Amino acid sequence: MNRDLLVSACKENIFYKTSFINNDFDKLEKLMNLTLAANEKFNLTAIKDEDSFRELMIYDSLLPLKYFDFSNKTVIDVGTGAGFPGLPLAICSSGNFTLLDSTNKKIKHICSVIDEISIKNVKPVTARIEEFDNDNRESFDFVIARAVAPLNILVELVLPLLKIGGSFIAMKGAIGLEEIELANDAIKKLGGKLGIVKTDYLPESKEKRILIEIKKIKATNKKYPRQYGEIKNKPL
Ligand code: SAM
């Protein structure tokens, strides 16, 4: 996907309800160049060419803006890696983003990127999600995660972070619908409820994407999250 196609696909498919600033696309190109350059030093993402990067890392990261309004909301991207989807979302929306990952070298990279591109609405944090939960329960309007863990595990890690009335958005590929079946019991036990589920396709490769919203309707019992090993071995 070249830059012109990225811009037109975003205008037609994602930002059709709201305006966006063309300058955002300069920042997105800088983000791509910085990430690909850093990739040569330490492995940040498996995607190494510009055309694939624009579609799989930029366009894909922006898809939630088609359905959810992050304006002036608190949003945490858990397991953000090199900053995806959090950095593209922060460039193109006015939400306040926390980008969390357990790997310090990735968070250090995000710190240098936000300095370089001057992204003001991002706070990078090195932590494990389940440990960050302790001091940050019910702190966020939105939690978002892409490629971090299966849904039945993710919900226990992230629902404690949401305010009541807030939403968790899980960004999934084609198997997303099967993951919902396996997570139904956990969602209920944690005070959640399935919200909207949207199927979409990337413009060039036509790969399927599923966005799953879990709404928090009740407080999550303080006994969650359990230790990570327990969550993984015995999902709720
Ligand atoms: N979200 C990014 C993306 O889509 O490009 C990165 C995905 S990468 C496959 C998964 C990331 O989740 C890794 O950077 C890993 O360090 C982080 N991660 C996995 N489990 C975590 C946990 N319990 N707490 C914090 N980070 C975690």
Quick overview:
The chain is of the alpha/beta class and 236 residues long. The chain has a single domain (68-233), classed as 3-Layer(aba) Sandwich (Rossmann fold), CATH 3.40.50.150.
CATH uppermost class:
Alpha Beta
CATH superfamily: Vaccinia Virus protein VP39
What binds here, in terms of ligands, is:
S-adenosylmethionine
CATH topology grouping: Rossmann fold
Note the beta-strand portion. Answer: 15-25%
Unreliably modeled segments = none
Shape: globular
Count of domains: 1
Structural class: alpha/beta
Main β-sheet, spatial strand arrangement: 3-2-1-4-5-7-6
Average pLDDT confidence is: 94
Radius of gyration: 17 Å
Q: Number of DSSP strands?
A: 7
Name of the CATH architecture = 3-Layer(aba) Sandwich
* Total of DSSP H or I helical runs spanning 4+ residues: 9
SSE order, one letter for each helix or strand: HHHEHEHEHEHEHEEH
Descriptive report:
- This protein is α/β, with parallel strands linked by helices and 236 residues long.
- The chain has a single domain, classed as Vaccinia Virus protein VP39 (Rossmann fold, 3-Layer(aba) Sandwich), CATH 3.40.50.150.
- It is 41% helix and 22% strand.
- It has a seven-stranded mixed β-sheet with strand order 3-2-1-4-5-7-6, sandwiched between helices.
- Helix 4 links the parallel strand 1 and strand 2.
- Helix 2 packs antiparallel against helix 4 and helix 7 runs parallel beside helix 8.
- The longest helix has 19 residues.
- The chain is globular.
- The termini are far apart.
- The site of S-adenosylmethionine has 15 residues, from helix 6.
- S-adenosylmethionine binds next to helix 6.
